[in-house]
């Protein structure tokens, strides 16, 4: 099982790759500031949230079924990582 810091690093890389945000370094993205607010280094919109949700589900083998819940999960790097850890603790999804 991955630790929280490792998941945060991988999440930042995944977001940048998924949304093709090339000149930005994962280290530039703040863990505790909303990705939706425009106050972080990057700003994502509702379409981006859907793309990020799909990427997170594939990368970490977790499931996010409710779109309203997805916006809360994809709010910050911290909320994404905490969700992934909580899902991994419940055990892997059947393939």
- Count of helical regions: 4
Which fold name is given in CATH as the topology?
A: Non-ribosomal Peptide Synthetase Peptidyl Carrier Protein, Chain A
Structural class: mainly alpha
The CATH class turns out to be Mainly Alpha
The H-and-E topology, N to C, reads as HHHH
Written description of the protein model:
The model has no long low-confidence stretch (mean pLDDT 92). The protein is globular, with a radius of gyration of 12 Å. It has 95 residues and is an all-alpha fold. The chain has a single domain (4-89), classed as Orthogonal Bundle (Non-ribosomal Peptide Synthetase Peptidyl Carrier Protein, Chain A). It is 53% helix and 0% strand.
Offer a few descriptive terms.
95 residues, 4 helices, mainly alpha, Non-ribosomal Peptide Synthetase Peptidyl Carrier Protein, Chain A, 53% helix
